Amino acid sequence: MKTILIITNSTHGGGAENTMLLLHNYFLKIGLDSNLVAINDMDGYQEMIHEKTFLIHRKWSDGVIQTFKGLRKFKEIIKNLNPTIIIANCELPELYVALIRTHTSIIYAVEHTTKPWNGRRVSGFIVRFILLLKSAKWITVNQNQKAVWPCNQKSKWIPNPIAEKSESMSIKSDMPNGTIVFVGRLREEKSPRLLLEACEKLSIPLSLYGDGNLAGELKSRYGDSDLIRFMGYKQNPWSEISPYSLIVVPSEYEGDGLVVVEAMQNGNPILLRDNVDLRRFSLDESHYFGNFQELVEKLQSFRDDPNIYKVDAAVRDRALKPRSLDSVAKQWIRLFDITKKDRIRRR
Questions:
Q1: How far apart are CA 209 and CA 192, in angstroms?
Q2: Which helix or strand (DSSP H or E) is residue 316 part of?
Q3: How far is CA 165 from the centre of its chain?
Q4: Strand ranges (DSSP E) for the chain?
């Protein structure tokens, strides 16, 4: 029987972590021996304990020494589980997998961004070269990405799944219609400042869902008020977000852009920054802004006409269909079988 080990930054938080947890729970539900390792704790939030989940308890702000202390604990987990399949999800899991013995394991590394190891390219090159020597297989969540940095290895596209919307996920919101909403980590590459400045200029209400290393600075600068509300991390922010609110994604770059698909599922109008990562959703030109002035103008247009950035039903269906949890999980399972047969054939 396969023993699957999924390694993530944390049990929840961003799209990458949430989708791996969905897959882990699905694998368990159908009887697979799936295990999940979460390296980091969520600062300020209680870590969620799930079935067959192992916590390393590294802090996001920890340096090199604590990272390698966590590696010792990770090695013990590997020794006890002896996984046949390892899925390394994002950069820190890549590092941990690169530094352990994995002779009997099939390794899949999941690329979640178009700018991997940003600011740490030398370290990233070394880690990914080691993974190349370990014959790691690359999976990308970006349909347009055919190969991964830095060795130009071919990658297979498997989209991130999204949870089906059920009655238990119905919206219970007191959010005023016409609110602007940001969902994501409060980090530089997500550009929350751009949106904060635009909403402040127009005196238009903004709710921000998420946390990150900019949270303290932004709260100090803008504060919580009737106009600007920092909602923090929520496991399911969509249960609070009115479908009549505008979802704005001002990111400089994105990996999967999962928030865009979730917004479509929720029925929200959407406004995106004009970059190659977000252009792949193929929305009408009106849904994109290129700079601060365009963002301000489009927010004003939304205030004048709340339906202006609604997504066409055909576009929404095309984006949602390949992301059903059942479909994505079956793609992973087929990949496991194909890789195993290929390995046996080469012996």
A1: 11
A2: helix 313-320
A3: 18
A4: 3-8, 33-40, 53-58, 85-89, 106-111, 137-140, 147-148, 153-157, 180-183, 206-209, 228-232, 246-249, 270-273, 288-289
Max Cα distance, the chain (Å): 66
Q: Please give the order of strands across the beta sheet that includes 106-111.
A: 53-58, 33-40, 3-8, 85-89, 106-111, 137-140, 153-157, 147-148
Q: Where does the pLDDT of residue 224 fall: very low under 50, low under 70, confident under 90, or very high at 90 and above?
A: confident
pLDDT of 167 > 50? The answer is no
Angle at 155 between CA 152 and CA 159, to 5 degrees: 140
d(CA 252, CA 277): 9
Q: What is the pTM of this model?
A: 0.90
Task: Please tell me the distance from the alpha carbon of residue 126 to that of residue 29, in angstroms, as a whole number.
Answer: 37
Which sign, positive or negative, has the C-alpha torsion 303, 304, 307, 309?
A: negative
pLDDT exceeds 70 at position 342: yes
Query: For residue 40, what are the β-bridge partners?
Result: 58
